[in-house]
Write a structure and sequence with these properties.
GTP Cyclohydrolase I, domain 2; 6 helices; alpha+beta; about 160 residues; two-stranded antiparallel ribbon
């Protein structure tokens, strides 16, 4: 067994390397592989409760929570891991953003890439800035963005909302 011991001076020296490696890991290009919807699948495809942590662009402290994403496919499908990767691309510890902005970025990305019949994104998060300053009340903030069938058909929207309860 090989043991590597790092002394304090080495740890400080390597901090910048670790930081750069983390940024590189989180900010790599988003790749979404598509598959033809050969079988004509026309029901909701969802991934719910995708955890995330990001930085509030107003206060530069974290907000953390979970994101749920659904789409109604048309000609293209993608793997569930790609839905989670899309969330991670817009909401990760190296990104300064707002919850509202990220909600729409995820929605617009999936619309552009999948060209689906509908997309819905719901983000539930706790913001450190609300806990630490101002009202100092740890509460849950919920945002949503809706497109296509989810917007036009209340029963489709409700079906997804029931899935994420």
């Amino acid at each position: 067994m090989k043991i590597i011991i790092e002394k304090e001076k080495d740890l400080k020296k390597n901090t910048q390397k670790r930081k750069k490696a983390m940024i590189k890991e989180f900010q790599k290009k988003l790749r979404i592989k598509l598959f033809r919807n050969k079988d004509g699948y026309d029901q909701i495809i969802a991934q719910v409760g995708i955890p995330f942590s990001a930085l509030c662009e107003h206060h530069e402290v974290s907000f953390e929570g979970e994101c749920s994403v659904a789409y109604l496919p048309d000609k293209w499908l993608t793997g569930l891991s790609k839905l989670a990767r899309t969330v991670e691309h817009f909401l990760n510890p190296t990104v300064k953003t707002t919850q509202e902005k990220a909600t729409h970025q995820i929605l617009n990305c999936l619309i552009k890439v999948l060209n689906p019949k509908g997309v819905m994104v719901v983000i539930k998060a706790r913001h450190s800035c609300i806990c630490y300053r101002g009202v100092k009340k740890p509460s849950l903030t919920i945002t949503s963005a809706i497109y296509g069938t989810f917007k036009d058909n209340p029963s489709t929207k409700q079906e997804f909302l029931n899935l994420i309860k």
